[in-house]
Amino acid sequence: MNDPASGNAALAARDLRHIWHPCTQMHDHESVPMLPIVRGEGAWLLDADGHRYLDGISSWWTNLFGHANPRIAAALADQAQRLEHVIFAGFTHEPAIELAEELVRITPPGLDRVFYADNGSAAIEVALKMSFHYWLNQGHGEKTRFIALTGSYHGETLGALSVSDVALYRKTYAPLLLTPFLTPSPDAYEGEPGESAEQTAMRRLGELRALLERHAHETCAVIVEPLVQCAGGMRMYHPAYLAGLRRLCDEFAVHFIADEIAVGFGRTGTLFACEQASVSPDFMCLSKGLTGGFLPLSAVLTRDAVYRAFYAEYGAGKAFLHSHSYTGNPLACRVALETLAIFRDEPVLARNRTLAAHLARRLEPLREHPHVADVRQTGMIAAVELVADKASRRPYPAAERRGLRVYLHGLQHGALLRPLGDVVYFMPPFVITEPEIDRLVEIAAAGIAKAVAGP
């Protein structure tokens, strides 16, 4: 770390010479630092110059049990000496079999079939195609559309973008995308004055019903992120919406796709967000925390009735058409199994409830801040909404990039906070301690004060 050739500046220069980073205007790095990380320890990341950063966002919401978790690392090393990969068409292996069995056991009832893919966006592609193809195999080729929530985000491959409602993406890639029906989000922040979160959810269900009455005949599925619309600004809503959605999907014969890629595996307080409404979707998409942040892997769980619609003699032409080279990768499956074993062996959810309560207490004073319109929380996910005017909830002009100021302040003080626009959020690894939460909130609060001061 004392060698200038392997320090932050040298590694950043080498990076910027060749690498094009995701979700980034690369021009920003003329002033925003590129940080080379060389090691992780629990909730901390260490850069090449020896600086430490408290990972307040679980490195894009993937890390559950800490960076370089020794238990998961040992499982990975063991598997690497046995089998690294094998074609998953016509071949199988025990890690994939055991993982499928465990996923069926822990997910909501009725999800009995597991289809593997590489990442969250790929899982969404699988679910969309599988839903459409199911209806086609059932003789309903007229069902070609999907319903998504306003403000939704489900990934950045073309199908996933097609059911996302992010204005910049839709404007840019519109000629390439399907056009979904959009139904108003049950986002409690957008509720009417005096309306409870549950009342907002019920009102929005009424609007979804009206949409289904007009378009169910051409709709394959409704897709939602249960309880929290994460990349859409950590928008949160009442579980009653999920219960009502399940009823409407049954009534109008459309599928319910639950995108639990970000909200699954304990993030919302239960192992899966759908549990809080006691519902089983027709498709559940999982990724991110599935491997504890170690390796890319995703899974789509569905019902046996869906599987049966594809099960036929070869000549019937009903087989599902989707494959990836690394489908069911043994290394990723073994890591996922070890991650799920930690949930079995340790009181993870109980500990998370204690940590979430502590986080809530520490964030409470920010509710009175003159430029904070909302502090919201669901389990281990919390968000602070910055606005130019509290009374009217008028946002800051996007060009002012107030959230970026919080990010830069965080880096300067040893914390990784990466706001979504002007929404400062917290989604830390489950191994974070209460003193570390204190530190994270203190840095964020100071960053918010700095960000809203002056023009």
Automatic annotation (TrEMBL):
The record marks 23 as: Participates in the substrate recognition with KAPA and in a stacking interaction with the adenine ring of SAM. Its cofactor is pyridoxal 5'-phosphate. It is found in: Cytoplasm. One of its GO terms (molecular function) is pyridoxal phosphate binding. GO terms for cellular component: cytoplasm. Pyridoxal 5'-phosphate binds at residues 120-121, 259, 324-325. Keywords: Aminotransferase, Biotin biosynthesis, Cytoplasm, Pyridoxal phosphate, S-adenosyl-L-methionine, Transferase. Its main location: cytoplasm. PANTHER family: ADENOSYLMETHIONINE-8-AMINO-7-OXONONANOATE AMINOTRANSFERASE. Belongs to the class-III pyridoxal-phosphate-dependent aminotransferase family. BioA subfamily. This is Adenosylmethionine-8-amino-7-oxononanoate aminotransferase. It comes from Rhodanobacter denitrificans. The lineage of its organism: Bacteria, Pseudomonadati, Pseudomonadota, Gammaproteobacteria, Lysobacterales.
